[in-house]
Every structure is written in C-alpha cells, then in structure tokens.
Sequence to fold (480 residues):
Amino acid sequence: MYLELDGQGPRYAQLIRALKAAILDGRYAAGARLPPSRTLARELDLSRNTVLAAYEQLQAEGFLLGRVGSGSFVANVGSRAPRRSGGGALVAPLSAFARRALANTDGRHLAAPAQRELRYNLQYGVPLTNPLLAGAWRREIARAAERAAPGYPDAQGLAALREQVCDYLGRRRGVPAAAADVLIVNGTQQAFSLAARVLLEAGDQVALEDPHYRGARQVFVARGAHVRGCRVDGEGLVPQALPAGARLAVVTPSHQFPTGALLPLARRVELLAWSAREHTWLIEDDYDGEFRYGGRPLAALKSLDRAGRVIYIGSFSKALFPALRLGYMVLPPALRDAFVAAKWLEDRGSNTLEQAALARFMTDGGFERHLRRAALALRARRAAMLDGLARHARGALEVVDSNAGMHLTAWLAHANHGQCEQLVAHARSKGLGLYTITPYCLRPPARPALVLGYAGLPPADIEAALRLLGRCLRETGLLQ
Ligand SMILES: Cc1ncc(COP(=O)(O)O)c(C=O)c1O
Fold:
C-alpha cells in the first residue's frame, strides 16, 4: 500500500487525509481491505494508536466499514474523477457533501427494508398507530385547508403554533420559552441540519454521546465535521469524557438514546459548566420527553441554561407520528436570527396547512387528549415487554430499567458481538425483527445489546414476539 503523508499538522490527521484521497481517487476500491493497524503503523513509522484513531474516524465518516473481528474495508463512496456509468453517460463529479451522504451505510434512504415478511418487528422508530388520532387529524387538516393563508408562511413558523409550543414546554418540560425564540422545523433532522450549517465549518469537532442517535451523526459527518464519542454509563453521559475544543455537543439528558439513562442533576450542572468554559453549543435532543411511566421527572436541561448555550429540540414524531415531519427548536437569542435566515434559505418555512392544523389541535385540547391515550397504550406495551423479557429471556438479557419513551435496551449477558449477530439472523429467519445497538455506536461497546422498540405492536403480539425470542435464544445456545 503506497501512502504519502503531507507533513501538515497532527500525524493522525495526515493519515486521514492520505487515506481519504486514496479512496476518493479510486486507488482503493470499494470492498478492499485495509492493512491491519499494526502493519500500517510499521510501514509508515506511526504509532498503532495513531492508525487506530484514523481508521475509527474514517469509519465514523462512512469511508470505511468495520466488521467485527475481520478488519476495515473501503466503503462505496464513488470517485472524484468523472466516470462513465453503465449506460455510457458521463457522471458529474459530486460535492464532498454528496459523497459523504452517499457513503452513509445506513441505507434507509435507498429502499424500505424487507420488513414485510417479519411476523413481529421490534424495530425502534415504528410508531404507535391510533385510529382516533387519524380521525381527529383528518378533521383538523380539512379545516386548515379551508382557512389557512395561501401565501408563503412565516419562515420562523406560524405564530399560533409557536405560542402553543411555548405553553406546552412551560407546563410539561419546565422550559420557559417565548414564541420569538421558537423556530418550527421539519423534524429534528432538519434542526440538526440547520445547526450544522449555522454553527460548523468542515473539520470542526462535534461531541456525541456514545452510543447516540445516528440521525445526528450522519448529518454532522456529511457536513465534514469530526465526530468525537463521549462515554456513557448507567447514569448517562460521563462529563469527564467531554473533549476540549468541540464546537457543538448533542446530548439526550432526559432519556439517553438508546440506553435510557436519566442524567442526574450534578452531571447536568457539570455539562453546562463545560459548555460555558469551552464555548461549546449544546443541542438538547428531547425526543420523547412526553412519555414517562413513573419515577421523578426532571425538567429539561434548557431550564437550567443561564449562559444561553443550549439549543433545545423537540419533535412531534413521537408525540404524534413521524410522517408529520414537524418539530421545533428553542434558540438562544444570540442564534435566533441566523437559524431563521438559514431556514428561509432552505425551504421558505414549514408547510402552513400542517402547522395550522397542529396549532388548532393543541389549542382545542385534542393534542393533550391524544397524549393521555397514547401514554396509556405505551405503558401497557412497555409492561408487556418487561414481563415477556422476564419470562422468556431471564438470564440471557439484562434489561436497562428505563422509565420513558418507546424502547428498551437489553445487554446480552453471555454473548459476544458475533453471537449476537447470529441471534439476529436466526430470529429473522423465524420472522422476528431484532436490532442491535451497534449502528448507534462509534466504538463497538464491550458487550452486545439489543434495542427493542415496543410502540408498534399490541401487548399480545409483544408477548408472542418475546416467546419467540426465548426460543431463538435457546436455539442459538444463549439461554439454557
Ligand atoms: C434520539 C432521537 N432524536 C430525534 C428523533 C426524531 O427525529 P425526527 O423529528 O427527525 O423524526 C428520534 C426518532 O426516532 C430519536 O430517536
């Protein structure tokens, strides 16, 4: 392998540049295996840790794929040189952003996964369906269609909706917000994307909890940021693991995603002190704060933010349904105008019809009624899952006790990552969709875990799914 380092800056950054150039120029083809870190370190006279750090970063950015126990492979990122497609037409060179977006190995943008043949799908993100909500929503949309102003909307969001969001946040999340500080966005995903445009230059560092929500990582990586993983333990983010020099950090203090931990007050205070000291913006992703099943609710981190460094994000994807694509940001005054300007450039504002329907749904009490019904249904599904895990998987899975949201994380007590993958494949062959924690991690965790979504199945199906899980655990030798 011939690689030339350019001698500029830290050695690991030189190695990242050299490897990226080789991949983008097509010198290392998709699927090619990179040399073991020890070998490359010897060849280039680098420390092994330098090579490991470079491989890890390239993996996070989607240039490399790691397979447990079998090394690092070049991902399919396209090449910088114009080339002929199968049909003979000239393919234009793509931007660095587009190449990184294409290198995203998640693949959800390409095709619906083959979930249809699954009898039971325990996938996180499958929503709760509620026929009563569908009826109420249809009426609100019809009404909004008759009354909503047909011109371009206010790019910041409909004033009536922003006011409702403030009222809701004050009552339910302890966040004091004025309508002037709220920006309505097309889901959390657009909030991340705007944050990347407004706050980051390529090469800036972004701190993420590890594990974390991959939707956030994918956006920041595609924008050319260097993502740094911060350790998470049973109480959530470990403040001592926060790096120096990050421009931005994304945190889930109310319900660590995906482990479920609730960040204690002392750690929240440390986190805020770190962000003020380091001049780092904090994005608080409060994605499922509306569903709690007991335990003491803690107000959002934003409620403690005296320095004006917390950007709060909420979404209607969990509270209502993800197809709605509506969410909101509460912005520190120093950032408000820049975010609204970016939103205006991006799409001229979110869909008026749906904003108007939602504002009215919130004003007339339909939203709160829906939340109460949804919380009851989710509580029953969560109980069925905890009960089923205790009955059918005790001894094989250690469930993290998490009192909120729509999923649970369960660590495999006596299995390695390979055995966990075997379990997932075996379960799939029996019609059961299981999903590991690995795609949410920058570094593979010491032990494998499953992220178990329960919103999409009624309690009886959850019981049947977990009975099947118990059978799969026994058939793969993970349960006696
Ligand atoms: C951690 C986390 N943040 C945010 C979201 C919501 O994203 P969006 O509003 O883009 O649907 C989800 C949804 O699955 C999530 O798991």
In short: The chain has a mean pLDDT of 91. The first strand starts at residue 64 and ends at 67. The pocket of pyridoxal-5'-phosphate is lined by residues 125, 187-189, 213, 215, 252, 257, 285, 287, 315, 317, 322, 327 (CB under 6 Å).
